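Notebook, student rotation project (T.W.).
Task set for the rotation: take a protein with a known small-molecule partner, predict the structure of the complex, and write up what can be learned from the model alone. Partner molecule chosen: pyridoxal-5'-phosphate. Sequence and SMILES entered below by T.W., checked by me.
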Amino acid sequence: MNFDEIIERRNTNSMKWDHLKAVYQDADLWPMWVADMDFRAPESVLNALDDVTRHGIFGYHHPPHSLRIAIQDWTSRRFGWDVQPENMTFTPGVVPAIHHLINVYSNEGDGIIIQTPVYHPFFALLRSNQRALLENRLLQREDGKYDIDFDDLESQMKKGAKILILCSPHNPVGRVWSESELSKIAELCARYEVTVISDEIHADLVLQGNHTPFAKLEAAKDLQVATCMAPSKTFNLAALQLSYVIFNDKDMQKKFEQQMKQNFMGIGNPYSSAAAEAAYRHGEAWLEALLTYIQGNVDYVQERLQQEMPSIHAAKPEATYLMWLDFRELELTQDDLQNWLRNEGRIALNDGHTFGKAGSGFARMNVAAPREHVVEGMNRLKTAYDKMKNI
Ligand SMILES: Cc1ncc(COP(=O)(O)O)c(C=O)c1O
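Predicted structure of the complex:
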């Protein structure tokens, strides 16, 4: 594994590299947006995919039991969480899974809590399902990190919330919620009978601390919890579209599977199953090396900001390869900030505003790329910064 290797992604139909014009109206920006990585997947995954290709038959597929066992081993080894193979349901992505979970656990008009600023499709999921948005804004500390506003969370629950969509670890603020924070959430959910959809897609990408699966908590054992996980972020397999939901309630799982069937949702393909199983069985050393590399990129970005661009701030993420950059000291409107990043910085970052109003003045930077790419992005940002400050 050589994370410094530059692998050309232009002209490969990559969302991050080849879809810039459609989103930013400019194809030449330096892409640090879409949450995937510019690294090749582990060798074991590539070999498993080669085997599928060489077999050469791509008929209807059913994910094998051995994949369930590989997931069971992984969650047990990585998180000390014992899950049963039959409690997992495969889905073609976490976002589609959440869409169907919302439909199983709630009705039109019901309130759903999300903790903002947060992964932007959560808003779209509520909108397209005509659910009422109950916004629990996270509180930013002096050091730039975020905490949960528990008083507000409780008041959102009092409004009759049916579901809390937890983002754990949290995208974009990078928090790894502690066991005590999660237990406090669980106690409130128990008191107000709120079901939890726990999006744990970033669970493997922890840089500091340990990830605690919400459903593993003692305080969550009487709650309805659907845990969404995937190898997609961890091993850079997003395009293979495999994820899974772990249920702690058999009836809910049954309803969910019925809902999937009624909506003609597919059950996967031999590439995604083979890649996921190889990654979970043989990808752990690769993952550890990846995390060290990402931490190096995070440190690099933070150091350059502190030394060369002191008006831009970023707390180190405890998890994910996404950095939440705070530009508020530049005193630009959100539109001006986006225009400045594009026109002067020539970089594509995710607009903070799409993560909710609480994201105004922020932008999200993806650092899962060879160091040279991150250096290029930071050089561009520095050029724009110096020009603005007349340095
Ligand atoms: C919190 C979170 N959930 C879900 C997803 C996307 O999941 P999928 O591609 O499996 O739909 C992302 C991708 O960035 C994410 O950050």
